[in-house]
Write a sequence for this structure.
């Protein structure tokens, strides 16, 4: 069965610290996509990144970076030099069948609080 | 280019009443999804449409719930005889599916409180 686990319920850091959010997934498919979404207090889920199962290259976008490791079924997200505006709940999600199956399977989210 | 919009943003109702939510997807998107999110949890899939066809329904979608997407544009989600357990955030997302990968873009959600 497909499943996404975000073991960290809440993380609190001080501004400018680096922080890594963990995501572990389970799937029997060989073709799948992984996603990260950000949910600020306003409630709207904001798309951050999509990764397919055949591309294990790490990705960097500004202060954000993602580490995808199929060997450990993990897709971790690191924020470098965190800022107060990074405070939000972050969700990791899985979509099977190359993303064409439809529904996303979400983890329970990690609430990140960045204090000034 | 406008994003996904949902209306209303907040709804308070009494148990037993019917409620209807609306979602307007991004204009060129052919898929539309409904999710439900309760406090402290990730969104859970309810149903999705490709154009006007409802292709999949979750077991979470009891017979009190019905969704439509007439003409493949906006969608409505109706809950009949609401129960307190229906209190949640209802999220709509849309995507363009050309047969391969897709990315879902979410609206701001409708927060429902059943008293």
């Amino acid at each position: 069965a497909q499943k996404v686990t975000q073991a960290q319920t809440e993380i609190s850091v001080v501004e400018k610290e680096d922080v890594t959010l963990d995501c572990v997934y389970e799937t029997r498919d060989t073709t799948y996509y992984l996603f990260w979404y950000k949910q600020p207090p306003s409630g709207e889920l904001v798309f951050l990144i999509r990764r397919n199962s055949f591309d294990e290259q790490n990705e960097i976008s500004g202060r954000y970076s993602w580490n995808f490791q199929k060997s450990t079924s993990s897709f971790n997200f690191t924020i470098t030099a965190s800022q107060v505006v990074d405070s939000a709940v972050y969700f990791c999600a899985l979509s099977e069948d190359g993303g064409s199956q439809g529904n996303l399977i979400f983890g329970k989210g990690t609430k990140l609080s960045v204090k000034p | 280019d406008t994003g996904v919009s949902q209306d209303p943003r907040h709804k308070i109702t009494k148990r037993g009443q019917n409620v209807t939510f609306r979602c307007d997807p991004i204009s060129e998107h052919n898929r539309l999804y409904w999710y439900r999110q309760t406090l402290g949890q990730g969104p859970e899939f309810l149903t999705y449409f490709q154009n006007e066809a409802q292709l999949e329904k979750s077991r979470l979608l009891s017979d009190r719930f019905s969704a439509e997407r007439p003409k493949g544009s906006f969608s409505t989600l109706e809950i009949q005889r609401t129960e307190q357990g229906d209190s949640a955030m209802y999220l709509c997302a849309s995507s363009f599916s050309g047969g391969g990968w897709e990315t879902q873009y979410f609206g701001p959600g409708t927060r429902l409180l059943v008293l």
